[in-house]
């Protein structure tokens, strides 16, 4: 059976089946037998002038099986916590990054972000300043792109593609720069497959693949302890 709470925590429905829950919230009749449900996914691309749907996308068997196993594990874990068979602190969490973490209302005390507490006003100021500088850098980069495009457009409209232009205090011009020539691994694999067996091709590509040096990435999230 299922229950549903509103944003304030009040119980909207309790002890209802999933079809009843869908019917009460969305006004959609869902069959009691899940085997009679046709699951489809659609992507709606919306622009300023039109909207275009793409689909349907049906569940991939392997991913659907994984989702079912995950749902079963979550359900069983919730039941164990309710019955005190498992403590909440012992529940496994996903340690990786997820884009929804930044806007999650429970992120402040989520066990994923447990760590050492440091009390340093100067450090807090440095973190705030760094966030502000990165935000301004994004704005400045966008302004640079806009100004460059405007001046390039002026050069094109002037009809001059090779000579310098003089504005009085500056000289400027545009020039065609050759594009990069990256190695396409898929095309290389296809070409090598015409002369070599697949295991040899894999070995050649693996031996020719370089890995960049490790680097540290600093992640800063503005917290709201009072929320």
Quaternary status of these chains? single chain
pLDDT < 50 runs, ≥5 residues: none
Rg, nearest Å: 28 Å
The number of helical elements comes to: 5
* Structural class based on helices, strands and sheet pairing: alpha+beta
Gross morphology is extended
Strand content: 5-15%
Element order: H for helix, E for strand: EEHEEHHEEHH
Instruction: Tell me the strand order in the biggest sheet.
Output: 1-2
Count of β-strands = 6
Task: Describe the fold and architecture.
- With 227 residues, the protein is an alpha+beta fold.
- Among the domains are: 1-37, no CATH class; 53-115, no CATH class.
- It is built from five helices and six strands; from the N terminus they run ββαββααββαα.
- It has helices at 18-26, 61-82, 121-157, 185-192, 198-208, and strands spanning 2-5, 11-16, 41-46, 51-57, 165-166, 171-172.
- A two-stranded antiparallel sheet has the order 1-2. It has a two-stranded antiparallel sheet with strand order 3-4.
- The longest helix is centred in the middle third of the chain and has 37 residues, at 121-157.
For the structure shown, list the relevant keywords:
two-stranded antiparallel ribbon, alpha+beta, 6 strands, extended, 227 residues, two-stranded antiparallel sheet
